[in-house]
UniProtKB/TrEMBL annotation:
It catalyses: an acyl phosphate + sn-glycerol 3-phosphate = a 1-acyl-sn-glycero-3-phosphate + phosphate. Probably interacts with PlsX. Its main location: membrane. One of its GO terms (molecular function) is acyl-phosphate glycerol-3-phosphate acyltransferase activity. InterPro entries: G3P_acylTferase_PlsY. Keywords: Acyltransferase, Cell membrane, Lipid biosynthesis, Lipid metabolism, Membrane, Phospholipid biosynthesis, Phospholipid metabolism, Transferase, Transmembrane, Transmembrane helix. One of its GO terms (cellular component) is plasma membrane. It is an enzyme of class 2 (transferase). Belongs to the PlsY family. It is found in: Cell membrane. This is Glycerol-3-phosphate acyltransferase. GO terms for biological process: phospholipid biosynthetic process.
Length: 200
């Protein structure tokens, strides 16, 4: 029962449209009406500058981090470590399919960072290094996000050997593939736009 409550809590917390709230409160701008229409950090950075994108990213990271952190304390040793992945997946799905935005949302990358920070700091670090390296060299965030997410099940297998953790990490990777369908199509057509991470 505790696990079910935590999953519901994680989904609701993930559903909080932080990008929409931040841009509306600070700039009176509905980010959904600009750029790709996505409420995530990348669209905020493209249209409103790096600092705003970083702020949205931080908020989205916390949406993933806090539910799994709380789950770690509440579930303690009574549940397998893989159970916390279910809480993390719920937070990511909430971000991607927010109940407050008619089941629209972001692409789940920043929230995934938060989930991994809470579940597996080494996994978080590997994904973050991959993301940063590709983002600052190729300047194509979607490629960085997809390759970074691909590292999750690989890292879970190497670090834990727990097939349930590998399975749930693979589900997170697949969820990011799904939310990046449009990006993948643009990549295949050579039309994906780079992003300048040095913008103010």
């Amino acid at each position: 029962m505790r696990l079910v409550i935590l999953i519901l809590f994680a989904y609701l917390m993930g559903s909080i449209p932080t990008g929409f709230i931040i841009t509306m409160k600070m700039l009176n701008i509905d980010i959904r009406k600009h750029g790709s229409g996505n409420v995530g950090a990348t669209n905020a950075a493209r249209k409103l500058g790096f600092k705003m994108g970083a702020l949205v990213a931080l908020a989205d990271i916390l949406k993933g981090f806090f539910p799994v952190l709380i789950a770690g304390f509440v579930l303690s040793n009574n549940y397998p470590a893989s159970a916390i992945y279910l809480v993390g997946i719920a937070a990511i799905l909430g971000h991607d399919n927010s109940i407050f935005l008619k089941f629209d949302g972001g692409k789940g990358v920043a929230t995934t960072f938060g989930v991994m920070l809470g579940i597996s700091p080494p996994g978080f670090l590997i994904m973050a290094l991959i993301w940063l390296g590709i983002s600052f060299t190729l300047k194509i965030v979607s490629v960085a996000s997809l390759i970074g997410a691909f590292s999750l099940p690989v890292t879970a297998y190497i670090l834990s050997g727990d097939y349930y953790q590998v399975l749930f990490a693979a589900i997170i990777f697949l969820s990011i593939v799904v939310t990046h369908r449009g990006n993948i199509q643009r990549l295949l057509r050579g039309e994906e736009n780079p992003i300048n991470l040095n913008d103010s």
